[in-house]
Amino acid sequence: MQSATGPASERAREAARFPSAAPDAAPVLEARALVKRYGDLEAVSNLDLAVRPGEIYCLLGPNGAGKTTTIHTFLGFLEPDGGSVRVAGFDVTRNVLQARRRLAYVPEQVMLYRNLTGLENLEYFAALGGWETLTTTRLTEILVDAGLPRGAVGRRVSTYSKGMRQKVGIAIAVAKEAEALLLDEPTSGLDPKASREFSELIEKLRRRGVGILMATHDLFRAKESGTRIGIMRSGTLVNEMTTEEIGHADLERIYLDHMHEVEAAK
Amino acid sequence: MIRHIVRKEFTDLLRDGRFRWTAAIVGALLLVSLGSGWVETRRADAAHSAARETAREHWESQGEKNPHSAAHYGIYAFKPRLPLSFLDQGVDPYTGTSVWLEAHRQNDFLMRPAQDATSGQRLGALTAAQVLQHLVPLLVILLAFGAFASEREQGTLRQLLATGISRRDLAVGKALGVAGALALLLIPAAILGAIAITIGSPGPAATPFARGAVLTVTYLAYFGVFLAIALAVSAWARSARTALVALLGVWVLNGLVAPRVAVDLSKWLHPTPSAVEFARTMEREMEGGVEGIERPDREATASRLVAEHGVETVDDLPLNVVGVYLQESEEYANQIFDRNYSALWNRFESQGLVHEALSFAAPLLAVRTLSMGLAGTDVEQHRHFATAAEEYRRDLMRRMNGDLAENSRTGETYLADADTWAETPPFLYDAPTVGWVLRNRTLSLAMLGLWLVAAFLAAAASVRRAEVA
Question: Disulfide check for A110: which of A169, B99, B119, B346 has CB 3.0–4.6 Å away?
Answer without folding.
Answer: A169
